[in-house]
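Hi all, posting the design record for the shared folder.

TITLE: backbone redesign
STEP: 1 of 1
STRUCTURE INPUT:
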């Protein structure tokens, strides 16, 4: 399959990826591809320059394939190019054939509602529901897999299979091998069923906040935080909109 790109969205981490961004612009110009920095609308390719955090910051608003470039030593689970090979790989992407010269892999995302109102953010790694201060415990009513329980912990993570290698793994969850499944794990569980992580393939997770205040954070991004109050209900489920990541091997 020959993939023709006409317009690219470029984003980079401030004071970190500018030189690579300039080189990317030049390569795109040579191939007749338009580019934009401020709005991904109408773009059929996105290029993020930085670590996974930079990609996570923009992926919620992107439907097109994303090429991640790591300019240094950042964590780059979703990134398939670096400062040494990005020119060669970008040209292969622009000139090559999908399925032969490059591949586009779809990763599951999670969508989140608060009191039945959708948030504008999609989680590629995880949704964290927690107290607003680490020193406080989080009390909640958890409904998942047909059962409702009262939980006390320091926060609840709902995570994807790719995200299971990140925050969820650090709190003791076993990484998920099945990309169609997602999991639920507690941070420092005190009581409730989340003393062991749960794994789901379908359905949804409902968390009712029993604290006076709390918050929801998507993919660890400060700009993707929503505040909660007593009795607010957070609903998390699989999204029908996967993220599409450019790879150069299967």
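Okay, here is what came back for every position:
SEQUENCE:
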């Amino acid at each position: 399959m020959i993939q023709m790109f006409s317009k690219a969205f470029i984003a980079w981490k401030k004071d970190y990826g500018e030189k690579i961004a300039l080189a990317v612009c030049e390569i795109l110009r040579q191939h007749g591809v338009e580019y934009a920095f401020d709005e991904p609308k109408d773009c059929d390719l996105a290029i993020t320059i930085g670590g996974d955090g930079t990609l996570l910051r923009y992926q919620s608003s992107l439907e097109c394939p994303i090429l991640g470039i790591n300019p240094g030593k950042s964590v780059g689970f979703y990134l398939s190019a670096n400062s040494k090979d990005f020119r060669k790989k970008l040209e292969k992407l622009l000139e090559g054939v999908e399925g032969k010269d490059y591949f586009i892999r779809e990763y599951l995302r999670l969508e989140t509602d608060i009191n039945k109102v959708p948030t504008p953010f999609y989680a590629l790694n995880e949704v964290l529901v927690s107290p607003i201060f680490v020193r406080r415990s989080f009390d909640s009513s958890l409904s998942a897999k047909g059962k409702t329980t009262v939980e006390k912990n320091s926060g609840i993570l709902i995570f994807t299979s790719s995200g299971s290698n990140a925050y969820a793994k650090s709190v003791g969850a076993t990484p998920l091998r099945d990309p169609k499944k997602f999991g639920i794990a507690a941070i420092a569980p005190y009581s409730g069923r989340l003393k062991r992580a749960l794994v789901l393939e379908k359905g949804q997770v409902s968390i009712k906040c029993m604290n006076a205040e709390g918050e929801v954070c998507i993919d660890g991004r400060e700009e993707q935080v929503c505040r909660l109050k007593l009795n607010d209900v957070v609903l998390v489920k699989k999204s029908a909109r996967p993220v599409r990541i450019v790879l150069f091997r299967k």
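COMMENT: The chain is about 15% helix and 40% strand.
Let me know if anyone wants the other runs.
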